[in-house]
Amino acid sequence: MTQTIFDLLKALMNATLLLLALCLFLGWQLFASAREVTDRLGEISENLIPLHSQLQTVTQEVSLLRQALDRSNPADRAEIRKMLSLLETQLAAIKGKAQALQQLPAQLVSTSVESAIRSLSQEIDERLPRLSSCSQKQTALLE
User: Fold this and answer.
1) How many CB atoms lie within 10 A of CB 37?
2) Within a 10 A sphere around the Cβ of 103, how many other Cβ atoms?
3) pLDDT band at 117 (very low <50, low <70, confident <90, very high)
4) Short-list 98, 116, 4, 114, CA closest to 47
5) d(CA 6, CA 15)
6) At what angle do helices 2-71 and 74-127 cross, to 10 degrees?
7) Residue 92 in 3-state DSSP?
8) Do residues 51 and 102 touch, judged by C-beta distance below 8 A?
9) What is the pTM assigned to this prediction?
10) Which comes out higher in pLDDT, residue 142 or 89?
């Protein structure tokens, strides 16, 4: 009787250690995925800095052109209006690219989470024993 209780305690300890190891492994995988996402988001933010400075430059040029248009004589206004419309078109294109880049981090996070879940489920499938090879009596004991 004492030996049986001792064996049951050892089995309980082994199961606990296996679950702890699995939790540690899953946590490690989660943090590795989070670090990868953080690195990618850092790269994206580095790419946004030049775009932001270009937007500021174009906005300043548009402002200067508007001021020049107000100060100019009527003969020069047509040329300035043409330059202003060209700059506004370029500004709209840059703003469109900025909006596309703003959506990129959300897509990156979504893709990273999906790949992390996929890799974790593959690891769980490989590491845990297959229940399909268990007999019906053994699976009834697990339930």
Assistant:
1) 17
2) 9
3) confident
4) 98
5) 14
6) 170
7) helix
8) no
9) 0.44
10) 89
Q: Which token pair is 112?
A: 């990273």
Contact 87, 62 (CB under 8 A): yes
Instruction: Pull the structure tokens for residue 5.
Output: 């209780």
Helix (H, G, I), strand (E, B) or coil at 135: coil
The two tokens of residue 103 are 């959506």
Helices (H), the chain: 2-71, 74-127, 136-142
Which residue type is seen at 95?
A: K
Are 116 and 33 within 8 A, CB to CB?
yes
77 close to 67: Cβ distance less than 8 angstroms: no
The tokens for 63 are 């402002």
**What is the band of 128 on the pLDDT scale with cuts at 50, 70, 90?**
low
For residue 36, give every residue at least 6 positions away whose Cβ sits within 8 Å of its Cβ, in sequence order, or none: 112
Distance CA 37, CA 111 (A): 9
Tokens 């030049």 belong to residue: 50
Tell me the C-alpha distance between 141 and 135, whole Å. 10
Residue of 34 and 9 predicted with greater confidence: 9
